Amino acid sequence: MAKANLSEWSELVLNMVDNGVIKTEKVKNTMLNVDRQYYVPGPFDPYLDTALPIGFGATINAPHMHAMVLELLKDHLAPGASALDVGSGSGYLTACMALMVGPTGLVVGIDHIAHLVQLAQRNILNGNSFLLGWDSIIFRTADGRLGYPENAPYDAIHVGAATQNVPSILLEQLAPGGRLVVPVGNRKTYQILMQVDKSLDGKIQKKRISAVRFVHLTDITSQGKRASQITLNDVCG
């Protein structure tokens, strides 16, 4: 890793600490150890705090969004925990989650586009290959709207694309005491990042975190149409 790149990434992470986006040592250290340069394909600057295209109409979210999600999920990504990353894309947040649950935990990253699953695996091999040696991270090609019941229940679930409503299928796969973070709303109008907690007795409590702008969680056919129409304005707002 080039020192200049490490310095740029460290500077961005520490700037998020100074601005209160990153609030804990756990999230700071995790992001410092997962350099975004390995997860942004093509000609784009990985150290810009903005969402960027990764192909097929999908995006890698802005670093401040990754930091926000990790802060919301940090207590549910304890060593040995189980987590699901829906719409894993280029693998950045999946890698962060795997680092946080450690070698005794498990993170499942799913995407319905096989090429993106392969991209995520390659990115982790290049940037954080020790995670693959831990056997704490797996990727699957699957419809994110259905979750991944084979490894459920999950202590933490992240959804990296917007849904019209909080998905009931994902709530079923959330463990008692677990937390789901998902953007909810219509891409053309209004979206809210939602924190959804399941109590030990199965009760659901929802909390609105902030206004956001995400591409939509969809099927592979619709994703193909979306890929032909996407522009930087769609992902950088």
TrEMBL record:
It comes from the Eukaryota. Signal peptide: none annotated. GO terms for cellular component: cytoplasm. It is an enzyme of class 2 (transferase). It catalyses: [protein]-L-isoaspartate + S-adenosyl-L-methionine = [protein]-L-isoaspartate alpha-methyl ester + S-adenosyl-L-homocysteine. GO terms for biological process: methylation. Pfam families: PCMT. It is found in: Cytoplasm. The keyword Nucleus does not apply. Its EC number is 2.1.1.77. Keywords: Cytoplasm, Methyltransferase, S-adenosyl-L-methionine, Transferase. InterPro entries: PCMT, SAM-dependent_MTases_sf. Gene3D superfamilies: Vaccinia Virus protein VP39. GO terms for molecular function: protein-L-isoaspartate (D-aspartate) O-methyltransferase activity. Belongs to the methyltransferase superfamily. L-isoaspartyl/D-aspartyl protein methyltransferase family. PANTHER family: PROTEIN-L-ISOASPARTATE O-METHYLTRANSFERASE (PTHR11579), PROTEIN-L-ISOASPARTATE(D-ASPARTATE) O-METHYLTRANSFERASE (PTHR11579:SF0). This is Protein-L-isoaspartate O-methyltransferase. It comes from Nezara viridula (Southern green stink bug).
